[in-house]
Amino acid sequence: MAVWRGFECLFIFVSLFALCCGQWGWRLPPGYACVERPVQAICRLRPNPTLMSSEYRDIQGIVIFTQRITCFGHYSLQVKINIAGLPANGTWDYHGIHVHESGDMSRGCESMGPHYNPYGTAHGSPRDPESRRHVGDFGNVVKDPFGNIQGALFDNIASLVGRTSILRRGVVLHEMQDDLGRGINRESLRTGNAGRRLACCVIEPL
Ligand SMILES: *[C@@H]1O[C@H](CO)[C@@H](O)[C@H](O)[C@H]1NC(C)=O
Ligand SMILES: [Cu+2]
Ligand SMILES: [Zn+2]
């Protein structure tokens, strides 16, 4: 009986510890209850005003971020992308899309800075490990022949919570395909040669 009581106590102790202190160094933002809940954010894409070419002036879009948070940490970030108004020129085209460092749109998409890169790593693919990509590297989305982009992706590195949160930073849609760090020049490991910034927005909590 005494032995069984011991195990029971240990079990209860371990359960309580897991419930209250299970975040293992990851601190819950203030006001967050220790229950699973979704956190959401939204970004409303607008055409880059500093871009001179008229073919990209009608871009409109929404990016919705959803992430489930528990006291043990967070689940991967779901990113839903819905964009219209790109050239309806009959071709399928890849366009790089990233989270950039700053939510500053005072000079259009140019003031949003480089890819969000809190760990000082090289540019890469969203499927690369944390040490070989930027936090902001979402890779490419595909534009259909009618000028629409519809997609959803999951990311295990970018997050809406914690010290390296992407909240209030920028989303930038590019003119060219992101080479995911596999290009032949130095720029490949900085920007993926994704070219000009067509549209952008600030990630706002929802
Ligand atoms: C079609 O539009 C895309 C931009 O989405 C552009 O990159 C591509 O060069 C255009 N293709 C043609 C054939 O004009
Ligand atoms: Cu970018
Ligand atoms: Zn990058």
UniProtKB/TrEMBL annotation:
Enzyme category, top tier: oxidoreductase
Cofactor: Zn(2+); Cu cation
Catalysed reactions, semicolon-separated: 2 superoxide + 2 H(+) = H2O2 + O2
EC number(s) on file: 1.15.1.1
Keyword line: Copper, Metal-binding, Oxidoreductase, Signal, Zinc
InterPro entries according to UniProt: SOD-like_Cu/Zn_dom_sf, SOD_Cu/Zn_/chaperone, SOD_Cu/Zn_BS, SOD_Cu_Zn_dom
Record PROSITE patterns: SOD_CU_ZN_1, SOD_CU_ZN_2
Residue ranges occupied by any Superoxide dismutase copper/zinc binding domain in the UniProt entry: 60-203
Signal peptide: 1-22
Domain of life: Eukaryota
Cofactor annotation remark: Binds 1 zinc ion per subunit. Binds 1 copper ion per subunit.
Pfam short name (any one): Sod_Cu
Gene3D superfamilies: Superoxide dismutase, copper/zinc binding domain (2.60.40.200)
Record PANTHER family: SUPEROXIDE DISMUTASE CU-ZN -RELATED
General function of this protein: Destroys radicals which are normally produced within the cells and which are toxic to biological systems.
Protein family according to the UniProt entry: Belongs to the Cu-Zn superoxide dismutase family.
Protein name: Superoxide dismutase [Cu-Zn]
Native source species: Mya arenaria (Soft-shell clam)
